[in-house]
Design brief:
5-stranded antiparallel beta sheet; 1 helix; 27 strands; mainly beta; 10-stranded mixed beta sheet; about 400 residues
């Protein structure tokens, strides 16, 4: 495959990246499965207040809804010395100018309050003036997004911390949130998160070997048959991490697929390559990227040896950073060739010469047709790039989608 094929395509490619210094030890704060309860209380989303400052963003994804492209990420914010997490979203302005960083002081962040319902209203148990806005603080982490028409579905982890009483408990669960884009003169075009439901824990009963389950983060996938796929990570009894697929058919039915990857592989990204053929990329603790294929919707997986798997490497040192890649499919229309479905991957590349390199990862865009691989080149600046997300957007007219 030549570079000419790639550049002959009429497309618009957007890449969202998060730098290594924006990460957080959220995973360490999550309780074990024995303390997990699926949240059943109503939830209420609200915007941050002036004294709630965003300190960093992590676990990015890109969504295209109603003609706009939005960045979605986990936001870590502080109010005084108290740290918390919410969901940030921002409309991206597309231009030929040099890419700009998201302004943390302007990015729109919504926080989740858990409350009790009285009729159709959301009320809170604490009424004293010194009480926080909600009775229960809800951390929302590792958002994973899938778009269906004008709706954005976000699967996220949450753990709730009650009040100061000794009986207050930490509860862990998974949430499915539906969001929509609203365009007003006062606030412009933005995402509002609305319907929020907790997932029942009985969907995990068949996986007795797992002691913990967290959302993979980044982008999920919608198959051609309408099935939603959300990559998740499980912790086995030997404390090794495995990657799995959480399967949702659009109603109340959820299935945690039985197919698992090799121990020590995390940060999964999934795409549908062909009808019902799935490709999953993971970052493994041996410093390699492993790619797996499934022809039965994730019930079983085979490593793609000889093609994509183990081609890409992470940083090889004592502190290997396992980061999620941007991973999508795209149809390219060449000048002299027929249309071809390819996969686009964004991954950090590190200098092999420690004396010349600065130790930072430079994000590169890769293109592959599952047989050949081309390094298109760098798409980031001088920051130490970690997690990334990539979106393929048609640059054609309403009548010509090419």
């Amino acid at each position: 495959m030549s570079r000419h094929l790639f550049y002959s395509a009429v497309l618009l490619l957007l890449v969202l990246m998060m730098c290594c210094n924006t990460g957080g030890a959220v995973r360490d704060a999550e309780p074990a499965r024995g303390d997990e309860l699926s949240p059943r209380s109503p939830f209420d989303w609200r915007d941050t207040t002036d004294d709630e400052k965003v300190s960093s963003l992590r676990v990015p994804s890109l969504v295209e809804v109603d003609g706009g492209v939005f960045a979605v990420a986990e936001a870590q914010w502080k109010k005084g010395e108290i740290g918390f997490t919410g969901i940030a979203s921002e409309l991206l302005t597309l231009s030929d100018e040099k890419p700009k960083d998201l302004d943390l002081s302007k990015v729109k962040v919504q926080l989740l309050d858990e409350c009790r319902a009285e009729g159709e209203e959301c009320t809170y148990e604490k009424t004293v003036e010194s009480a926080p806005q909600s009775n229960t603080k809800v951390h929302v982490s590792r958002p994973t997004t899938v778009v269906n028409g004008s709706d954005i579905y976000m699967l996220a982890g949450n753990y709730s911390i009650g009040g100061a009483a000794a009986s207050d408990a930490v509860r862990w669960g998974l949430l499915l949130v539906k969001g929509n884009v609203s365009d007003t003169k006062e606030k412009g075009k933005r995402i509002y998160w609305n319907d929020t439901d907790g997932l029942p824990w009985d969907i995990f009963e068949e996986h007795e070997s797992l002691t913990r389950l967290i959302v993979g983060g980044g982008s999920g996938a919608k198959m051609k048959d309408g099935t939603f796929l959300f990559p998740v990570e499980g912790t086995k009894k030997n404390n090794k991490t495995v990657s799995l697929i959480l399967y949702w058919n659009g109603n109340k039915n959820w299935t945690l697929l039985k197919g698992m990857f090799a121990d020590g592989c995390s940060d999964p990204s999934v795409v549908e390559r062909e009808d019902e053929k799935l490709i999953m990329m993971t970052a493994c603790d041996d410093g390699r990227r492993r790619v797996y294929e499934s022809g039965d919707k994730g019930e079983s997986w085979t490593e793609a040896l000889g093609t994509l798997s183990r081609v890409w490497s992470n940083k090889k040192d004592e502190e290997v950073k396992l980061v999620r890649s941007g991973f999508i499919t795209a149809t390219l229309y060449g000048v002299e060739t027929e249309e071809r479905e390819v996969m686009l991957v964004t991954l950090p590349v590190y200098s092999m010469n420690k004396e010349e390199g600065n130790g930072k990862g430079e994000l590169h865009l890769w293109l592959t047709d599952n047989t050949h691989i081309v390094d298109i080149g760098p798409v980031s600046g001088d920051d130490d790039v970690a997690a990334s997300s990539v979106l393929y957007k048609s640059a054609g007219s309403e009548t010509n989608k090419k």
